[in-house]
Amino acid sequence: MYSYKVYLLTFINENTGDFAELNNYVVRFTMPKLEGINHNFTNIYFTDINNKKLVLQFISCNHKHTNATIGVLIPYIADKIQIKMYIDSFYNNLVDRGLYAVWGSRGNNAVQKYDLKTKTVSNVYSGDGTYDYRSLQQDVLGYLYVLAYKSGADYKVQKLTIDGTKLWEYDPEDDSSKPYYLSMCQNNIVYGNNYGSTKFAGIKTENNSIDFSVTKASDVNYYAGWSIDEYGELYSVGQYNCVGKFNKSTGLYSWKSSNYVAQHTPVYYGNYVFDFYSTSMYRVSLSNGSSVKIGTLAASPLSQSIVISPSGYLYFASSNNLLYKYSISPFSQLWSVSIPYYAYLMGVTFGSDDLVHLWYNGAGSSFGQRAFSPDDGSLVSQDPDFSDSDFYDVDIYPTTKYVSGSPKGVHLLNSYVPIYESDRFYFYSTSGGDTTPPTTTILDTDTTIISRVDGKDKCTVTFEANEPIVEYRVMLGGTSYDTGTLLASDTGSWDSGEDIEVVIDDADIPAEGQYRINIYTKDAAGNWTPYDS
Amino acid sequence: MANYFVLTLDTTAPEIIINAPSTVYEELVFTVEANEELDTYQNIYIIDAEGTRHDLILLYDDTSFYGTVNLSDYPEGVMTIYAQVRDKLFNKSVLASKQIVKTSSVLKFKTFNVEKIINIKTQVKEQIKFKIRF
Q: Which residue from A289, A267, A285, A263 is spatially nearest to A276, judged by alpha carbons?
């Protein structure tokens, strides 16, 4: 399947409803999941109204989650601006999803793909014979990044297409910046730690140039794992098992949590990162690093085997061969089920059927997928375990373990970048904030008295808001948008002044009498119309 | 306008009364009156003494219906008026009814001077005649 789509984005000022004035803003928008279809972008770019290509700031797509955030920089002031977003060559079937592995024995290098559909293995790239291969990362577009290593501290990073074409090779002269392993790929940058983790660097994947390179700060012992939020901010596990927000320009932490809250790459969710230490689960505020122990786990998770679903449930695999589901708030175990021996959660996806898909590799040289019911963890389906030494000792640690003759990195192409059919996205500035709620005005009611008899049992009310809105609620009684009885609601996008029509049915009215009907609207910043007292 | 309005749910049916004389002759004048404003819908009919149904269309006047029915084709005896109407919100009243009696005819006397009649009776006993009008 080969498709081409153009999305026209119009940026609207949330307060006035006019075209937005843009001045060095990063425009972000998130495309929600398109149910049932998995898309992978292979090319995406933006142009302004003059077809000038804009700088793609970042693409954020947590491979464990289903939403992608794409940012572009608007580098100048414009009263009116329209941006075309081009997306081409996306695949909407499983053919090009796959599990990729990189082999590391010198003279026997290869990047291989395990086709998830046909369950067959094929070589996609035969490496340079004098290099060992290790560490594999994959970006949201599907490109592969592998680390080639040769004795004598000769490292280089290569970018490959999923078909095995080498696009570039990064081989800086500054050996100290050369990554020893690739720890993460997000936001159009592949991140790597060099030998001994004394340096951490980000390499821009567009032009294979160094984005930043820092030497570890005195209070940073090592970078054990990395996470990144939708704004492109980095969070890491650092010295003494703390979670910290990492400053790329200084190598220091903007803040770091209390000691001993982290044993693994922190999981970013909402305004927090979550991590565990032993069996203690911690929640760390992104704003100041304050940490709270939110509960105790039944078992200690395997490193890198903890995820939080988009709806906020915690899943982890433990060394006692169980998969657990926890609610975060309140913190409580919901269920646990047996999983294959030492199965790491290589990827957990949450399909349109709401099943929990566990992609695992076990220490028993197996790889497979199982789908569990989110309700009770019961096994719904499973692929036959794939037993092949090619997939033994796969790299799901940020620190690659080099074992001659075994694959050195495996990454599941699981970049769910869904496509949302919309011609309008709203403008979010990176500074300030909209705290002004929309004013909602009822324009007309076709009647204010109804009965339960057909023909007289409905009231149609027409209203508008004075700014673009994303949601409305029609409430019977109550004194706020979330009190009273909900008669009608919807989410979407409506322009300022756009008529919205809602029909109230007698079935929603409890008994004879008079009722105050309040209509509230919410703008893109989340402000609700207040109660009119 | 504001962001709220008051919506009323009215499920109460109108109460109605049939106003008609208890005895009628060649015509019937009656009204159906309600305690609130009505819709123009009407279901009004008479079941005559022989069980025949006569559907009627009365005139509408906001809170009532009214009209005159020519009873010349109706048999004598007890007949029943039925009426059902509805309010502006289509809440229907009960099917109200009222029984009335139709008689064949009635004598109507002109005004007499009783004294004269007595005199006449006294003086010309065999010659008294009444004018009878049907």
A: A263
